[in-house]
Amino acid sequence: MSPAAATPDNASFVNDAPFAFANDFLDDHAGHIISDPAVAIIELIANAYDAGATRVTVTWPEKVGDLLIVEDNGTGMTPEEFSRRWKTLKYNRLIEQGDTVVFPEGVRAHARKAFGRNGKGRHGAFCFSDEYEIKTRKAGQNTNALMSRSRIGTEPFHCGPLRIEKLEGHGTSSGRKPSMSNTSGRKRQKPMRNLQGLPIGWQI
Q: Contact, 103 vs 204, CB < 8 A?
């Protein structure tokens, strides 16, 4: 052993703590996408646009406890694509997929350039709730996952186990029960009344 690599007899090694995220990391990372309901809805619709959707439906909750659902008929994602795109902070759309929108097989539409760039738009779902369920279909597989704001410091959000089943079709939907609180215990005002005039369906 060379002198530079020598270890004193009284030295000890300790496994250092993993990287940690503060409770408000995601708020800072996503900014208005996660704090402004109008921006959040626009980002979620833009995600559908980038997925080649020709129809996006927003089901608005009529009372407390009802689900807010955003559903599209875009390409959807395979389990592998979902894991890569949803679990990567600041996912780079341009490097990973390019800027040209791919449409579902058999769909004829005008060429599009994708809006998405930095992978933050998907966090818009957390503007309305600290937890939401996502379902996405592609290539004969339906992938379901429960996403939640993390209550521990080792990850800013948590993806539950993927539930995968055989199902034809394509598209993605996400649903959540609008909430008034976040993981840090502070109250967040969700000005739902400002969005009551939004239409429930878009044709793109």
A: no
